[in-house]
Amino acid sequence: MLSDYHMHCKPYSPDARDSMADMAKGALRRGMTHICVTNHIENCTQSPEFPDQFPPFDDWAALWRDFSAVREKYLGRLDVRLGAEVGAPHYLPEEGRRIYARPELDFVIGSVHNLRRARDFYYLNYPEDFENFRPAVEQYLDEYIELSRSGMCDALGHIGYMQKYMARQGKGFDLMLFEDRLRTLFKACVERGVGIEINTAALSDALGEFLPQPSVVKLYRDMGGEIVTVGSDSHRAEDAGKGIREGFELLRTCGFRYVCLYKAHKPEFVKI
Ligand SMILES: [Zn+2]
Ligand SMILES: [Zn+2]
Hints:
It is a single chain. The protein has helices at residues 20-29, 60-73, 93-100, 134-148, 162-168, 179-192, 214-222, 244-254, and strands spanning 3-4, 34-41, 79-87, 107-111, 155-156, 195-199, 228-231, 258-263, 266-271. With 272 residues, it is of the alpha/beta class. The longest helix is centred in the middle third of the chain and has 15 residues, at 134-148. It starts with a strand and ends with a strand. One zinc ion (ZN) is lined by residues 6, 8, 85, 233.
């Protein structure tokens, strides 16, 4: 059993290269047994100051048609489910709740890609002295704490996201510097039944590491966290399922015995 619970496809994710059918094909080729397609929905982070944000999504009919055809095609070979990666749904709570309640979605990843009234971390130039960036990381983790209490997502996406882009600029930091905040966050997750994802995309990037970093995954486990998904965050068919085996290995190392699939926002625990 191998599950990839984070992938994007065109035309729903503007940064994706391949169709949903091709992503499924790529995942099957890499040995996946279960996938969840999670396209970007950035409806809650729209800002006139930052037009580089992905446009809002609302074509549920087209997405559902596409998904139904792919699910049908792979029936019995690959379990295909539909989810979404929603950018900071708690920034616009009414919209965040509306998306979470869509009947098409089995699973919602909540991801903070940008602070309020700021650009995606992808676009930032990071300071030489980390101290100048520390408040941004604090604010970033505070947003995840709020998100985990919001009821607008099932799992938290790629905690430590900016580490991926800092590494491309030869910079970095240990997220465990913020252990107090991480403890507050994971306490909220455990109380609320919110999971975390092990995102494998940065393994093959400059960072060369999981997000969140293994010591943070271990902290979640040590605090009683049990709900985890693993996702490649792939945007091309050849990357579907990439790093998933390694992600499962990390889970075992950290003491997890189950990985989660989702149906109607309810975690299904599968032995690993
Ligand atoms: Zn993301
Ligand atoms: Zn993603």
